[in-house]
Amino acid sequence: MRLRLAGGVVAAPDQAAWLPAPRSPARVAAEGDARPGAAVALGPADAGGEQVRAAVTGLRRLVEAGGEVAAGAGVDLGGGFRSARLAGARGDQRDAVLAALTVLGVEGAGRLGDRAGFLVALFGPAVTRRVGAAAARAISEGRWAAVHLASAASDLLGPEQLERILELEAPGDAGLFTGARPSVLAANLGRVLEPLPRPRRAALLLDLWERVAGRHAWQARREGLLATQARRSRLDDLRDRHDRHEDDLLLRLLRTDLGSDDPPLAAAARWIPPDHYWYGLLNRLLQDALAATALLHAAVEVHDHGPEEGLARASAIIGAADAELPDGAAADAARYVPGLTGLPARPGVHIRDLHRVLTGAGTGRSRETTAAAVRRHLAHARDHAALAIERIGWLLNGREDVPEHVLREWTSSDLRPWRERTGHGPAGPPEGWAGLSWWSDRLGTAGPQDTRAAEAAEAAETDAPAEVERAGELLWCVDLVNALARLHGHDAAEPERRVGTPWLDHDPPLGDDEPLAPRFGSLAGAVSGAAQLAELGGVPARGARTWTELVESLRAGTRIAEALSGEFAVPAPLAALDGTVVPGTGARFVVARSARVLAEWSEYMGNCIAGAHYVGDATAGRCVLAALCDGEGRVLVNVELVPARPARGWRINEIAGRFNESPDPRLARPLRGWVATIPQTEADDDPDLEPPAPEEVPPSRTARRPARPRPLQAAGPVLERLAEREWNARVRGETAAVLTALAGTRSGPGGGSGSGSASRRGVHRPGAADPAAAVTRLRRLGPLQLAGACRNALAQGPVDLVDLWALTEVRPLEAAIAALDPALPTRYAQLTRLTGAEPPPPSLRPLTRLPRVAPSYSMGVVARRMRAAVGRLALDGDPVLARALTRRPAVPPLCALAVLVTCRAPALALAPVAPPRAVSVPGFPATALNDPDGPWQRALPAARELGADTSVFWERIAADGLRVPAEWLAAGGWGRLWSRAHAAGRT
């Protein structure tokens, strides 16, 4: 049997494939020998061992550098070998070529074959020389994000527009994409941009690029700023160190006032700290806040300009903060305390050392030593700032029991000397002064706060201090939070978005925390979010000039608002397990309770779990949508759960990873087993599970003879084992790939080719990579939908008719029942009804619900329904089926379909194959209709599943002869079609 490769390619008869293996290359003798989509080295079947080893070594290096997807590009491995992937691989050729080019570069692009060939794979058949030259420049310069975007957008843009995309630049542009293959990005772009004029599409993509590149530049600066700080927070250590320092000051004052180094406990208990202690406490709090502000300011300047210039730029604020610290206070705070951190108790110690560097102290040190010392003093600026803000909160919330008259007097103290030397800093106070004015009012600071805010803002603009600034106005606290915000990459702090007492947020969200709001973390993520809105029914504005305007227009529709406001009723057993760690995975099971949650998941995962189909089913209670999340809350897989019927419990209908990739088997397998154990309803709420106790004890009954074992008890365990064995043996390799490809093809209305761009693109739904989920998906389709799915799969190319027919022959449960001990089918003859076209009787339905039997049973149901769907297409004279049959004919489907057409005599243009009453069928090799071992008699059972009434077969032969649609014979007649089917060996 010839190997099928990705993209529908079949290996030549004189070629063979080898897999990398630990000891030596492993030859792939049959399609089931390797998993679908595996990377192989394809070359002459008679190649020597050294040639094979060299080719496989080259394949291994290619896969290690570019991923398994790169092998699908057909890279020359030397010695007549090329890389390839077996059938069942996800994505398209552009994914493979782009992945391979990232490894080969322009210099090695010749290993991909003809230059025009791989350019067509990347940018479509309309690619021009100018586009090719622009792509070569982008690849040679390492601008992969531009190539990635241009390839994905090639279906939507003209050559000139592609050139503009390929000229785009961004520092470190590799991070502009996260995970999405070009084919996935292309599908999402099509959903969003197809309704718009082509010039508008290019302008929106250029705007999106600028925004994403700007976000990455901001993120890079933020990471650099935060890298100036120590990797491990020392806030807890600093808190202990500071508390010990304050305790020592208080004890020192206690001993001085009582005149004893060891005063009596009662005297210490009666002692009340004097007012000057509280003044000192408040002043130290202010001094520490000012010093932490200076440290943060210096850290930003040093990051932006280097240690020497940065420290010089921060000299004014460092000098001002140093002047606030009394003599001796720095030495006292720097004194080492055994058992505590070696960091100083107060940030002013660092300020004093930095001020000495600025004033020339220690000039004997080298520049490198000085730079290292500067960075060391700034490494814990964030921790000191956090502790200062924490202490300010204690003060404002009354945790520090400061006497009221002391607090009032301190809040009126003048801070003009500080402000005259420092100004307000680059950010200035937050606009509107909405963060801390509530607190300054509580402190009793006189004067309207909005007036003071305006004065402060004007002073910041003119570099002149406000006429008066009092400590109780907390402008110095705003400076501190603003400086901390600058260290996190923001221009200024913002009011916190919370209910309760107001405060300032030093690390505010970037305005994209709402579900499906415009987000610019990556190109793929931004496009995925917009595509989700289009999937929910959003309509893009044709006049949108920016990507933000485009997304806002998609969000503006009433259908979006209705979709996002949906709330789901989650059954009690699943609701009770929300947040539970699934055994064997380490991941938490999280239930979606609203459409808004789905929107957040969908935007990150890049799939359509928040689409109208899923939201509608979840709202109606037909399914439950959930996710597995890691310890940090990131979604690992999305899951659709449906009630298991007719027995109780739940089952996974669909499961998929990010960007619809196949889920990690280490997550999927344990999750399936765990879900199968969850009841549909709580026992207390279900009277059938636990009947109520009778009011009086019923009379005793005469003992009965043991009931005869039912099929579930007698055959269930062994049938489970055999069904699972047959499933694993038969639904794998090419079969699994064809099955999941078919399930991932959306059918159009009425079984036709579909309407709109979504149908033309062959949209994939989550879970299509899981054969069991694919079977479930197909089983849920109605007859017209299934016929449409088969037609679209044949039209779009994921499968052909031979693949489809082979899939309809996969009946794992039939094989399992045939392998049973003969005594069981003899005793329980109704077991054979599990493999018939009619629904099983009630006594057998529990068998079909067993977790290890259900997939095999469903596969048999789907196989029979698929044959009926193919028969429907044949009787309708569908041209797609006709092309598939004549393009790659095979004897079994050809005979079965010919019998169907002969028996049903549809209203089509039929051509005679054999005259009336003739038994011999012309063609080479010759065949006879009545040969019991011949292909025609063997085709009768399949023809019945196609929809033929074979009881009239001989009547039709006598009256009209054997007939087929004339369209089947358009390319050479019956003789050529029949000989091609036999010559290919598909009998």
Strand-helix topology:
Elements: E1 15-19, E2 26-27, E3 39-44, H1 49-66, E4 76-78, E5 81-85, H2 93-104, H3 115-123, H4 129-140, H5 144-153, H6 159-166, H7 182-193, H8 198-226, H9 235-258, H10 265-270, H11 275-305, H12 307-313, H13 315-324, H14 329-334, H15 348-358, H16 367-378, H17 381-396, H18 404-411, H19 416-422, H20 437-442, H21 449-462, H22 475-487, E6 494-495, E7 504-505, H23 523-535, H24 547-555, H25 558-564, H26 572-576, E8 580-581, E9 588-591, H27 595-605, H28 612-620, E10 624-629, E11 635-643, E12 650-656, H29 665-675, H30 711-730, H31 733-743, H32 756-761, H33 771-779, H34 783-796, H35 801-808, H36 812-818, H37 823-827, H38 845-848, H39 854-875, H40 879-887, H41 891-904, E13 910-914, E14 920-921, E15 927-928, H42 935-938, H43 940-946, H44 953-960, E16 962-965, H45 973-983
Antiparallel strand pairs: 1-2, 1-3, 3-5, 4-5, 6-7, 8-9, 9-10, 10-11, 11-12, 13-16, 14-15
